[in-house]
Amino acid sequence: MAGDRELQEAVARFVRAFGLHQPDQTPCGQPVPVSEAHALGELARDGALRQSELAHRLRLEKSTTSRLVTQLINRGWADRTPAPDDGRGVLVQLTPHGVQAAARLAEARAERFSAVLDRVPEGERAGVLRALTILTEAIDET
């Protein structure tokens, strides 16, 4: 049975192998901070989001998300507008340039994941996905 130390080492190896420890580029090699790439992905998938909802989805503090959105705005990838139904709420949405950036990242991500999955034996793919789901759920519960 795997212990704490084995799990720590396995996760650390995965993080390094996948490039998650490189803060200024995505694991698929794009020169975009990982947090910005995740924000672009959320906004591209669901359109305008309240900044508080984006913080929740990214599991970031509100102040961190505010700085992140400012970075996206400075790159010309997003706009921040008042929420129409709440004077205190803020909506974040992608600009046309942000939509293009999100599409480039999605394409690079799809290529990277496809290449990784191709190297996992077909009979073990479901198990790998299940293990990742179990780990994510265990982390969510802590």
How much helix is in the residues? 55-70%
What kind of sheet is the major sheet?
3 strands, antiparallel
For the biggest β-sheet, the strand order reads 1-3-2
Provide the CATH top-level class: Mainly Alpha
The CATH H-level superfamily is: Winged helix-like DNA-binding domain superfamily/Winged helix DNA-binding domain
- For the record, the CATH architecture stands as Orthogonal Bundle
| Unreliable spans | none
Instruction: Indicate the CATH topology.
Output: Arc Repressor Mutant, subunit A
**Cα-atom Rg, whole angstroms?**
17 Å
| Order of H and E elements | HHEHHEEHH
SS elements, strand count: 3
| Mass-distribution shape | globular
In round numbers, the mean pLDDT is 90
Q: Give me the secondary-structure category.
A: mainly alpha
Strand content: 5-15%
Query: How many DSSP helices?
Result: 6
Number of domains: 1
Ends distance: 21 Å
Description:
The protein is mainly alpha-helical and 142 residues long. It has one domain (28-141): Arc Repressor Mutant, subunit A. 62% of the residues lie in helices and 8% in strands. The chain has 6 helices and 3 strands, in the order ααβααββαα. The protein has a 3-stranded antiparallel beta sheet with strand order 1-3-2. A hairpin with a 7-residue loop joins strand 2 and strand 3 (90-94). The longest helix has 23 residues, at 96-118. It is globular, with a radius of gyration of 17 Å.
What structural keywords apply?
142 residues; mainly alpha; Arc Repressor Mutant, subunit A; 3-stranded antiparallel beta sheet; 6 helices; 8% strand; globular; HTH_MarR-typ
